[in-house]
Design a protein that fits this description.
mainly alpha, about 0% strand
Length: about 140
C-alpha cells in the first residue's frame, strides 16, 4: 500500500507542477496587469512548494517503495529524470526572481521582460516532456548499469 500511495502522490504532484507551469505560461503575456502579476507570484509560490514535495515524495518512493534504492540508483534513466527535474528547477529561478521584482516594484513589465520570462517558461515546458519518457523507460528496466 505504501508503494501505491507514494506513486499516486508523486504523479499528482508532478501533474500539479505541469499545470502551474502551463498557467504561468498562459498568464505571462504582453500587457499583464498588476493584479495578474500578484496572481502569478502566488501561483509561483505553489510551484516551489510542489517542487519540494515532489523531491521528498520521489526520494521516499525510490528508497522505501517496492523496487527500492538499489533499483533506482543503478538506472541511467532515473538519473536523467533527476537531472531533467533539476534543470527545470534551475530554469524556474529567473522567472521567480522576475515575478518578485515585478510585484515589489509595482511597475508593469515591458514586452522584452515578458518575452524573456516566456522563453524560460517555454524551455521548462519543453524539458518537462522528457520526464514521463525517462520515467516510463526507468520503470521498465531500461538504463540499468
Amino acid at each position: 500500500m505504501l508503494d501505491l500511495s507514494l506513486a499516486i502522490a508523486h504523479h499528482l504532484l508532478i501533474f500539479g507542477i505541469f499545470g502551474i507551469i502551463c498557467a504561468e505560461f498562459w498568464a505571462v503575456r504582453a500587457g499583464v496587469t498588476s493584479a495578474a502579476i500578484a496572481r502569478i507570484a502566488k501561483i509561483d509560490l505553489w510551484y516551489g512548494m510542489l517542487a519540494a514535495a515532489v523531491i521528498v515524495v520521489g526520494f521516499c518512493r525510490a528508497i522505501f517503495a517496492a523496487k527500492g534504492w538499489a533499483y533506482y540508483s543503478h538506472n541511467g534513466f532515473f538519473w536523467a529524470k533527476i537531472l531533467g527535474f533539476a534543470a527545470i528547477g534551475i530554469l524556474s529561478l529567473p522567472p521567480t526572481v522576475t515575478f518578485i521584482r515585478w510585484r515589489k516594484s509595482g511597475a508593469l513589465p515591458g514586452d522584452p521582460d515578458v518575452q524573456r520570462v516566456r522563453r524560460y517558461l517555454h524551455a521548462e515546458l519543453a524539458l518537462f516532456v522528457f520526464l514521463p519518457i525517462f520515467a516510463a523507460a526507468m520503470a521498465r528496466g531500461y538504463g540499468e548499469f
